[in-house]
């Protein structure tokens, strides 16, 4: 139910009292729920996030709509420039989350107005309000003041013009700057103008620049950090005031990590990350408890035939573990087409084609279950042009649509991969101890369509 404006709010000052780094759910936690929806914000509040980042656009009639893109096409059933909408047009539209987020979600979620968010969420969790187009900064400040939420928001923008109204109202502000160069401005000048926060992209900003901004007195908020390996690369000297993430519960290891899948929920769980450099396709769900890749066909042209999604909620795995799962190969382009299990030494982005993503193959092992029954194990090296085959076996060919079971046993010295639902030959044993401990599993397909269920680590 909407928050009562007379009820004590969680203020930005209270957030500042928390130890660094604070965690901010980007677009409400867009890897866990459809971005910039009230549903996403409620989820983030329920899971105890420190703050929520939202995006707003000023509309033609003076209203404010919550949406990230400059056009409405990607996430809704509307088309055209977001800022070209009117308030009635935004209200008649719907977020078609079942089409672009996850097929199990409905296509009739409401497109929130900024006033909806202030009323429903504004008193529960501090908000970082990203003002995206001309005039949206002043309009957002006016709405915040009307709803008596001035003490629980931070106004954010790419240019200082949209921060002027918030500065005048005494509302904290943050200027976004991708690489820390601050063209036309200095750290001291930004502070003198009344902005205490700076938003930096750590993928483009050197660590020295992050530290310099903090040393100058700015509170540094980094964006958008979605992998534990990326977070580990940030300076740990206190220069990071807060971290913006699409799945902050996974990155900070505070979410309910599990020893098995939760596919029965029929939506994404923590740490299910795909190949963002190619196509951010994180798979589909099928009742009652199946999860699959490549729902559209057997050749994923946008990524040269390969798809993979990390199952981060299972990681990191110990030096000795067993991973079991059921699988179905629905279709394949050739006998060599495969479903894959990658075990990588950290949670960095993975692709089985080193040339496609400029060296995204990570150190670890790649286990291929081929359509023709081939069971192969490869050892991979970061940036290597070829994986090294360390073991293989020929088993009976997979029958499309049939349920199979694979067991992967890892000890300090061996990997044993077994199709437990068939007779011998059904197993391959590899003696190799190159990589152990802290490993993350990825489920993948190459020129195939496959599903998994009952993924259990023990």
Structure description:
InterPro entries: GP_PDE_dom, PLC-like_Pdiesterase_TIM-brl. Residues 21-255 form the GP-PDE domain. This is Glycerophosphodiester phosphodiesterase. The chain has 458 residues and is an alpha/beta fold. The chain has two domains: 12-251, TIM Barrel (Alpha-Beta Barrel), CATH 3.20.20.190; 263-457, Exo-inulinase, domain 1 (Jelly Rolls, Sandwich). It is built from eleven helices and 25 strands. It has helices at residues 12-16, 38-46, 87-92, 97-100, 114-120, 136-146, 164-169, 187-193, 207-215, 228-232, 248-251; strands at 22-26, 51-58, 64-66, 94-95, 109-110, 127-131, 153-157, 173-176, 197-200, 219-222, 240-245, 272-273, 284-286, 290-293, 306-311, 321-332, 338-344, 364-370, 374-380, 388-394, 403-410, 414-419, 427-431, 440-446, 448-457. An eight-stranded parallel β-barrel has the order 1-2-6-7-8-9-10-11. A seven-stranded antiparallel β-sheet has the order 12-15-24-17-18-19-20, with no helix packed on it. Strands 13-14-25-16-21-22-23 form a seven-stranded antiparallel β-sheet, with no helix packed on it. Helix 6 (136-146) links the parallel strand 6 and strand 7. The radius of gyration is 24 Å and the shape is globular. The model is unreliable at 1-7 (pLDDT under 50).
């Amino acid at each position: 139910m909407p928050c009562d404006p007379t009820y004590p709010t969680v203020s930005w000052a209270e957030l500042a009292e928390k130890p660094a780094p604070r965690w901010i759910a980007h677009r409400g936690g867009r890897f866990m729920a459809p971005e910039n929806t009230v549903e996403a914000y409620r989820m983030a509040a329920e899971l105890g996030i420190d703050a929520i980042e939202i995006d707003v656009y000023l509309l033609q009639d003076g209203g404010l709509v919550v949406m990230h893109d400059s056009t409405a096409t990607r996430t809704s059933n509307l088309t055209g420039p977001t800022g070209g909408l009117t308030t009635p047009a935004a209200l008649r539209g719907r977020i078609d989350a079942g089409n672009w987020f996850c097929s199990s979600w409905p296509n009739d979620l409401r497109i929130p107005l900024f006033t909806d968010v202030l009323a429903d969420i504004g008193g529960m969790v501090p908000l970082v309000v990203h003002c995206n187009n001309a005039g949206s900064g002043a309009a957002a400040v006016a709405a915040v003041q009307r709803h008596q939420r001035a003490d629980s928001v931070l106004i954010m923008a790419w240019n200082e013009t949209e921060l002027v109204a918030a500065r005048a109202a005494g509302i904290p502000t943050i200027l976004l700057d991708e690489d820390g160069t601050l063209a036309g401005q200095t750290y001291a000048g930004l502070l003198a103008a009344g902005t205490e926060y700076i938003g930096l992209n750590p993928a483009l900003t050197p660590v020295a620049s992050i530290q310099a901004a903090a040393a100058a007195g700015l509170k540094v908020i980094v964006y958008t950090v979605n992998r534990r390996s990326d977070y580990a690369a940030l300076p740990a000297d206190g220069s990071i005031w807060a971290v913006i993430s699409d799945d902050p519960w996974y990155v900070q290891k505070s979410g309910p990590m599990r020893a098995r899948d939760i596919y029965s929920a029929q939506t994404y769980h923590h740490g299910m990350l795909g190949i963002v450099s190619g196509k951010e396709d994180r798979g589909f769900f099928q009742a009652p408890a199946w999860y699959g890749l490549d729902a559209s066909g057997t050749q994923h042209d946008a990524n040269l035939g390969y798809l993979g999604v990390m199952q981060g909620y299972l990681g990191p795995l110990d030096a000795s573990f067993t991973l079991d799962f059921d699988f179905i190969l629905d279709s394949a382009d050739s006998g060599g087409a495969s479903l894959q299990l990658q075990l990588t030494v950290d949670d960095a982005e993975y692709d089985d084609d080193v040339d496609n993503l400029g060296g995204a193959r990570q150190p670890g092992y790649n286990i291929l279950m081929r359509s023709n029954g081939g069971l192969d194990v490869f050892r991979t090296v970061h940036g290597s042009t070829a994986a090294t085959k360390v073991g293989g076996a020929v088993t009976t060919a997979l029958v499309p649509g049939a349920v199979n079971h694979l067991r992967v046993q890892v000890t300090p010295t061996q990997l044993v991969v077994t199709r437990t639902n068939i007779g011998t030959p059904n197993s391959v044993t590899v003696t190799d101890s190159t990589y152990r401990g802290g490993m993350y599993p990825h489920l993948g397909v190459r020129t195939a369509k496959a599903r998994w269920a009952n993924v259990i680590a023990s």
